[in-house]
Amino acid sequence: MSLREDADGLISQFRGIAFAKSRSRKRDTKGEPVRAGVIGVKAFERLNIAPESPREVLNQNWDRIVEQKYAAKCAPTTIRMGTLTIKAESSALKQQLLFEQKGILKRVQNYPGCEKILKLKII
User: Which of 95, 111, 112, 113 lies 20 to 30 Å (CA to CA) from residue 80?
Assistant: First the structure.
């Protein structure tokens, strides 16, 4: 028994409460500060959770969002300030996507993490 456990045991016994071992673990950072993002990534890894960005979700489901005949000719590029930018191969395709903009936006907003996308920019 370490001195720390013995000291805690004596204090617990004096107070009349049961001694409970500490649940803390030794850090692998050796006392160095760690960024919050690194902590979050490690927590996701430990729980086997893969955080997906809205852009990844859109890329995976792009053929369901736009018609299949257009899916190979356009792609989502960036998401900034609630605006999804879509790159189209031609001006004719850009015009067709502009006509279908409302429907595309509704389908985009149905995917997790994409609810905050409020506008489309087609280039």
Answer: 95
b/e burial code for range 36-69 (CB count within 10 A of at least 16 → b): eeeeeeeeeeeeeeeeeebeebbeeebeebbeee
The token pair that represents 12 in the structure block: 């617990």
d(CA 27, CA 36): 15
Answer for the pair 52, 68: CB distance below 8 angstroms, yes or no.
no
Structure tokens at 24: 């803390």
Beta-strand pair 119-122/74-80: unpaired
Q: Of 40, 93, 106, whose CA–CA distance to 122 is shortest? A: 93
SS3 6: helix
Beta-bridge mates of residue 84? 79, 120
Q: How confident is the model at residue 43 (pLDDT cuts 50, 70, 90)?
A: confident
User: How is residue 16 written in tokens?
Assistant: 């009349």
- Whether 3 has a pLDDT exceeding 90, the answer reads no
Residue 104's identity, in one-letter code, is I
